[in-house]
Every structure is written in structure tokens, then in C-alpha cells.
Amino acid sequence: MPGIDESREFIPVRIAVLTVSDTRGLEDDKSGDTLAARLTEAGHILADRAIVKDDMAAITSQLQKWIADKDVDVVISTGGTGLTGRDVTPEAFHSVYEKEIEGFAALFHQISYEKIGTSTIQSRATAGVSHGTYLFALPGSTGACKDGWDGILKYQLDYRYRPCNFVEIMPRLEEHRRK
Fold this sequence. Notes:
The chain is an alpha/beta fold. It has a single domain, classed as MoaB/Mog-like domain (Molybdenum Cofactor Biosythetic Enzyme, Chain A), CATH 3.40.980.10. The protein has five helices and eight strands. A six-stranded mixed β-sheet has the order 3-2-4-7-6-5, with helices on both faces. It has a two-stranded antiparallel ribbon with strand order 1-8. Strand 2, helix 1 and strand 3 form a beta-alpha-beta unit. Helix 2 crosses helix 3. The longest helix is centred in the middle third of the chain and has 15 residues. It is globular and about 45 Å long. The N and C termini lie far apart (about 35 Å). Belongs to the MoaB/Mog family.
């Protein structure tokens, strides 16, 4: 049975939260607040937080900064995953991926479908890995952030989760560079 193995010690990870929005600031960033609150309540470390415009270069630049920062293990973004002309978060994420985690989008859509039905089809949530950093892009709604965290990330970012989780393989993400 999948679940938390209480015999294992919790290992906090350092998570940066990125909000992609042309209109939000820190004072009204409810989705970013939701992610920051949930990850710290789970025992993880909020490594950094930023808001960038719906702009490919701005998003990519912030991702590259955090990917290069050894004090950031994970980036979770909110916003810019839809279908409108300004929604370029998935394209920015894909431009820095070394490996995509295809199952993330599939599982996100399954969880989202239970809440919003076929409207989930309008989301382009995505995840991948770059230079040992996990990258997760969630839609901008608070509900989608809750679904992504509560349904997937709180488990996969918990070392105690069995049968497997993202934390236990972190030391191996860059083994191809050690040859």
C-alpha cells in the first residue's frame, strides 16, 4: 500500500515558488501564498519566491537562476499554463528541461478532472528536471495549486512516502555528469 512510512526520517527540501502573472504582486498572490503555506506546513524550506511577467525570457531567466542555485532543490510555479497568447510557462519550462516527467501532467489532470471535469483540458501543467533541480508548473488558480500540492507534490516531495518518491532519487539526478 502506498503511504507515509513513519519509520523513515523526514528530509526537508528547499523549494522556490514562482508566480507567473502580468497583474499579481506579492500582496495579492493567493496561489503563491497557498503554495508557500503548504510547503512550509509540510516541513519544507521556502528557499525563495518571485513574481515574473508572462514572458518567455523572464520565466526562463528566473528558472535558470534557481537551477544554478545549489540552495534550491525544487521550483514550483503557478500561472501561465493555459491556452491564451500570453500563456508561455510550459514553453519556458520545456526550454530548460533535461528530462520531462510526463506522468506529472497525467496525474494532475486525473486529480483535476475529479474537481472541475473536462475543464482540466485547458491546463498545460508540466514537470521536469534540470541540473538536479525538480521543476513543476501548475495553473494559476488557487484550487489547481491545492490539487497539485495536496494530490501529488506533498507525497512525492516527502522522503517517507512509499513505495518511492522524488527525494530519495535526488542524489542520482546528476550522476550522468560525474563520469
